[in-house]
Write a structure and sequence with these properties.
The complex is a heterodimer.
Chain A lengths: L6 E12 L2 E13 L4 E5 L6 H8 L7 E6 L2 E2 L5 H11 E4 L11 H10 L8 H11 L15 H13 L5 E5 L7 H16 L3 E6 L2 H4 L4 E6 L2 E7 L2 H13 L1
Parallel strand pairs in A: 3-8, 3-9, 6-7, 7-8
Antiparallel strand pairs in A: 1-2, 1-4, 4-5, 9-10
Chain B lengths: L1 H16 L1 H39 L3 E6 L21 H8 L7 E15 L4 E9 L3 H4 L4 E4 L4 H5 L4 E4 L1 H7 L9 E4 L2 E9 L14 E4 H9 L6 E6 L5 H16 L9 E5 H44 L1 H9 L4 H40 L10 H27 L5 H4 L2
Helix pairs in contact in B: 1-2, 1-11, 2-9, 2-11, 2-12, 3-8, 9-11, 9-12, 11-12
Classes of the chains: A alpha/beta, B alpha+beta.
Chain lengths: 244, 414
């Protein structure tokens, strides 16, 4: 009934203070994101897109403005509360995959569940389900260093999914992959979005960004555009990938 | 629970995958723990050996020596001082049950060195002039022939009793009874030999030559004092009273009114036992403490390695926090890893310490000493607790550093 947006950001600002030298990374950013959206945040390096993602992902705190996540005001929350929120409601996918070395695929995906005090007996089902949804369950007992780049990213996606999060943040997910594998990974994210997951993508690659249904462009700490992508543009992007 | 088990699994993998490096890391701990075990084991066995030597002589023994000295310390003669105040009359007085009722046997003793000639040998020997009661005071047994009798104490008889090894050396493959040996310019007839007894710390009866008291005193040495009087008390609980009686008896004989002017010292083996136990205990713990210092060094090494490990794994810590690990989870993880490393090192150290101590005991027993291999559960418990404590103490700082890493570090990893 009149669902409140998943993410509501009002006049968000972030200033770094480095021994007296102040840097404004974000200056008054405002937008909302509803459940089920697929949003790309685009911008050159130094634009503040990474800073914005850190704050949205509850990895960092804003220095001004307000951030409501899932209806809750995040300012003033303690570190442990933020950790618990990340654990239950947020999934991350990183450019460099960030899988634990000398650890199996299964154990890697299970990691968020280990830190959730409430889980235990049904871990196995949840891990297998997550592995299946990205098509990598046949590699469950492999060690992370035995996988290809694309497979690693799929494991990372499974890990981001295993706790059934409200939102998945992907930071340059195709940055370390060749274009063919990159497409495979984006297709998985697309599929997840069609299944109802909210996905927020940070990237500077246009092709990757165009999988999203909405692009927020950011420059010098401010939003310069916030547009829905028309189906036509998305079809063009799909064509582009088919030619390859 | 997984938060506890997983770090153990991780540590095991980390240690296993870089075996040589792990070995170097834990080397300090291994050496330290092994040293502690070895010192405590060998120290304990040495202590037992020393105490057993005294016990085998008999714990009811009381020794009187001339010259006053600190009763907790060595007698005056140990400092090279010859004092001639102890006499045969003192021995007789002490033997008198009216004076000292709690003694069973009393023996007097003089020692000397002289040239000895036999059929085969010509060498310098140590000999003892003793009373017949010696075999009742000290635990020595006759193998062949007999010991002296009471008349021979004062009859200036030219008889000798040989220790087991001495008899073998002087008269191999023959019966020494009735044979003669010459000491200085006197001919002595061998009337008995002693059974083999082995070294007992203070005396070696196997290599002794025993002569009657007066013969040695007056003929060979030309003295009329005694080097010592040894007595056996009838019961351990009477030792204190016996010592008091002995002291008052001698004071009376020597005309001493004030105990400050005592010209003799009385010691009991029970006293010696307790003093030696305290002294060897202090030695043992002191050596253990020194061994433990190397553990401190090992601990600093561990802290160093853990700090490097934290630095190398900053992105991993960031990742764990990003997926929901709390600061305490991270601290606990690294603390457990540190404890696992020191505990493993400790286990190896205990094993090596045990091995070395056991081998040492085999060697020492092979050399003829009655060495008892001891490995107390106390030392194992001590070594284990110390290893774990080192893991906690030296792992705490790196663990807390790890806890402070921000989850954004996960994204900086390239």
């Amino acid at each position: 009934m009149g669902a409140s947006p998943l993410i509501k950001v009002t006049d968000l600002g972030k200033t770094y203070d480095n021994e007296g030298m102040k840097t404004e990374a974000l200056r008054g950013v405002s937008f909302t994101i509803k459940k089920g959206e697929f949003v790309s945040i685009m911008g050159p390096s130094g634009s503040g897109k990474s800073t914005l993602m850190h704050i949205l992902g509850l990895l960092d705190r804003a220095t001004s403005g307000e951030y409501y996540f899932d209806g809750q005001n995040t300012s003033g929350l303690e570190d442990n509360t933020l950790a618990a929120l990340r654990n239950k409601k947020i999934g991350f996918i990183f450019q460099a995959f960030n899988l634990l070395p000398r650890t199996t695929v299964y154990d890697n995906v299970e990691l968020p569940l280990i830190y959730d005090a409430n889980t235990g007996t049904d871990n196995k089902q949840r891990v297998i389900a997550a592995l299946k949804s990205v098509g990598i369950d046949h590699r469950a007992d492999y060690f992370s260093n035995q996988l290809s780049g694309g497979e690693k990213q799929r494991v990372a996606i499974a890990r981001a999914l295993v706790n059934d999060p409200e939102v998945i943040f992907a930071d340059e997910p195709t940055g370390n992959l060749d274009s063919k594998t990159g497409v495979q990974v984006m297709e998985i994210l697309d599929k997840l979005n069609r299944e109802g997951h909210t996905i927020i993508l940070v990237t500077h690659e246009t092709i990757t960004a165009s999988y999203a249904k909405r692009i927020i462009k950011i420059l010098d700490g401010k939003i310069v555009s916030d547009k829905e992508i028309s189906d036509k543009k998305r079809l063009l992007a799909e064509k582009g990938k088919k030619i390859k | 629970m997984r938060v506890l088990l997983d770090p153990i699994k991780i540590s095991f993998h980390n240690l296993n995958s870089a075996k040589f490096r792990s070995f170097l890391t834990t080397l300090g701990i291994i050496i330290g723990v092994a040293s502690v075990i070895i010192v405590m084991s060998i120290g304990g066995s040495a202590q037992l050996l020393i105490l057993d030597q005294i016990k085998s002589v008999g714990s009811n023994l009381v020794g009187i020596t001339p010259g006053s000295s600190e009763e907790k310390g060595p007698p005056a003669v140990a400092f090279g001082v010859t004092i001639t105040t102890l006499k045969y009359q003192d021995l007789l007085a002490i033997q008198n049950k009216k004076n000292v009722p709690d003694l069973t046997f009393v023996a007097g003793n003089v020692t000397g060195t002289a040239q000895m000639k036999s059929d085969r040998e010509n060498k310098q020997v140590n000999y003892q002039g003793v009373t017949a009661s010696l075999i009742n005071v000290e635990k020595i047994e006759i193998e062949q022939g007999r010991f002296f009798n009471e008349q021979e104490d004062i009859s200036l008889a030219r008889n000798a009793v040989l220790g087991n090894t001495t008899a073998e050396d002087l008269f191999p493959n023959e019966n020494p009874i009735g044979k003669n040996i010459q000491i200085k310019d006197q001919i002595f007839t061998v009337i008995g030999t002693l059974k083999k007894r082995g070294t007992t710390g203070f005396s070696n009866t196997d290599e002794g030559i025993y002569l009657p008291l007066f013969t040695a005193q007056k003929i060979l040495l030309g003295i009329n004092h005694l080097n010592s009087i040894n007595a056996r008390v009838n019961d351990e609980k009477n030792i204190e009273r016996a010592i008091a009686d002995i002291k008052s008896t001698i004071r009376e004989k020597h005309n001493i009114k004030d105990s400050a002017y005592d010209d003799f010292s009385v010691r009991s083996t029970a006293q010696a036992l307790s003093t030696l136990t305290s002294v060897t205990d202090i030695l043992k713990y002191f050596l253990t403490a020194i061994a433990a210092i190397s553990l401190l060094v090992g601990g600093v090494g561990i802290m160093n390695i853990m700090l490097i490990s934290v630095k190398q794994r900053i992105w991993e810590i960031g990742l764990r926090k990003a997926v929901g690990a709390k600061r305490l989870d991270v601290i606990l993880q690294f603390l457990i890893e540190s404890i696992f490393i020191t505990f493993s090192g400790g286990a190896v150290g205990i094993f090596i310490g045990f091995l070395v101590s056991y081998l040492a005991s085999l060697v020492i027993n092979g050399l003829g000493y009655d060495w008892e291999f001891t490995l107390s559960s106390q030392s194992i418990f001590t070594a284990t607790s110390i290893s774990i404590a080192i893991g906690i103490i030296f792992g705490m700082y790196p663990a807390r550093k790890a806890g402070k890493v921000s989850p954004m570090e996960a994204l900086r990893y390239e």
